[in-house]
From TrEMBL:
Any one biological process term the GO annotation gives: negative regulation of DNA-templated transcription
Function: Negatively regulates transcription of bacterial ribonucleotide reductase nrd genes and operons by binding to NrdR-boxes.
Swiss-Prot/TrEMBL keywords: ATP-binding, DNA-binding, Metal-binding, Nucleotide-binding, Repressor, Transcription, Transcription regulation, Zinc, Zinc-finger
Entry keyword Zinc: yes
Any Pfam family matching the protein: ATP-cone
Record's protein name: Transcriptional repressor NrdR
One example GO MF annotation: DNA binding
UniProt remark on cofactor binding: Binds 1 zinc ion.
Cofactor(s) named in the record: Zn(2+)
Domain ATP-cone: 46-136
Biological source species: Microbacterium protaetiae
Domain of life: Bacteria
Length: 151
């Protein structure tokens, strides 16, 4: 780790602590050259492989933005979307995979979104699962009703 003050190519770790519910590590470092201290935050990277084959880092913001469209006009707050995005990320990290396909992310969104708002779930699922007809909607609604009957 380069020192941000003198650009020395090495530093010494003084203290390490987990943060962000264990998803990252905050390290306090000291430069052996200039003696100044600085902090770093380390996280395990999640890479998303898009349908086009392009790889990019996972983004909670993109998850929230995608779900936000389905939640327009619904009683869903920005905090709800942030919690959903965090829950999706935790689920994906729990798989142990470092590379994910966009399909994996969509599947991880469906469960928490269904719990958050069923109408938003239907909207998201209709696009994500490419509903082609009214029968697709009817089947999904029938499944929601059956699940409510069991609960």
């Amino acid at each position: 780790m380069h020192c941000p003050f003198c650009r020395h190519p090495d530093s010494r770790v003084i203290d390490s602590r987990t943060s962000d519910d264990g998803l990252s590590i905050r390290r306090r470092r000291q430069c052996p050259e200039c003696g100044r201290r600085f902090s770093t935050v380390e996280t395990a990277s999640l890479t998303v492989v898009k349908r086009s084959g392009v790889a990019e880092p996972f983004s909670r913001e993109k998850v929230a933005a995608g779900v936000r469209k389905a939640c327009q006009g619904r009683p869903v707050t920005e905090d709800d979307l942030a919690m959903l995005a965090q829950q999706v990320e935790e689920t994906l990290r729990g798989t142990g995979a470092s590379q994910l396909e966009t399909n994996d992310i969509g599947l991880a969104i469906l469960g928490p979104l269904r719990e958050l708002d069923e109408v938003a779930y239907l909207r998201f699922a209709s696009v994500y699962q490419a509903f082609d007809s009214l029968e697709d909607f009817e089947a999904s609604i029938a499944q929601l009703r059956a699940d409510h009957g069991r609960a």
